[in-house]
Design goal:
Length: 226
């Protein structure tokens, strides 16, 4: 993994060596794509446009948030900012990297939550916009616009996470693929006809389930809080 991590550090160096104005852009992207925006911005907007789409965004966002935490417990994943010091790379080779206020994230980093949760939760919104575009226009370019914007957004989010040293490139790619797959898989199974109480109960069940799983793993001797 050291070779993969070192290649990721070099890629981050290349990103950070870009024009100075890009710094503000990448930091803005990583801030706006925070997973909490799925619940505070994307869900209300999608619900206003269409109730079923809004419920799907909420449900998939909830499940993907939980699954991302669980995956990080088992996949671990180093954080670039800390790895360059813990691995000794910074003392062996010249490393030209800049630290940002959001660089010092702790805990496992694989897969990227920003990419996975955003990619999963936005899937039903993108498919709904694609269906709407298909009804309104026969142009292939118009039909593909929502998915094109979706792909560009995830690419920008992924690059921004590498830029601020929160993730390695392979963690970003894993998050994007996992998010898209989860969104595709859960969209048809979203409980759109359920009452609000169901989502409260589901959130509580996921919380208690994660706490129980955490306790079991710790009891088995695996330090997931490293």
């Amino acid at each position: 993994m050291d070779a993969l991590h070192t290649a990721g550090i070099r890629f981050a160096e290349a990103l950070q060596s870009g024009p100075p104005w890009l710094e503000k852009f990448w930091i803005s992207v990583t801030s706006l794509a925070d997973p909490k925006c799925v619940f505070t911005v994307c869900f209300p907007l999608a619900y206003f446009l269409d109730r079923k789409v809004g419920v799907s965004v909420l449900w998939i966002g909830l499940v993907s948030e939980w699954l991302n935490v669980v995956l990080k417990w088992f996949l671990f994943g180093e954080r670039p900012f800390w790895w360059i010091h813990e691995s000794g790379l910074a003392s062996k080779e010249p490393v030209a990297l800049h630290q940002f206020p959001v660089s010092c994230e702790t805990g496992p980093g694989d897969p990227s939550g920003h990419c996975m949760i955003t990619g999963a939760a936005l899937w039903p919104l993108v498919t709904a916009l694609t269906a709407l575009a298909s009804r309104r226009s026969g142009s292939l370019a118009v039909k593909l616009t929502p998915f094109g914007a979706y792909a560009l957004l995830l690419l920008a989010v992924g690059l921004s996470r590498v830029f601020v040293l929160a993730h390695f490139p392979h963690q970003v790619v894993g998050g994007i693929l996992a998010g898209a797959a989860l969104g595709w898989g859960l969209q048809a199974r979203a409980p759109v006809a359920r009452a609000p109480g169901f989502f409260v109960a589901a959130a509580l069940a996921l919380l208690l389930g994660s706490l129980a799983l955490h306790s079991l793993v710790i009891a088995a001797g695996v330090d997931i809080d490293w």
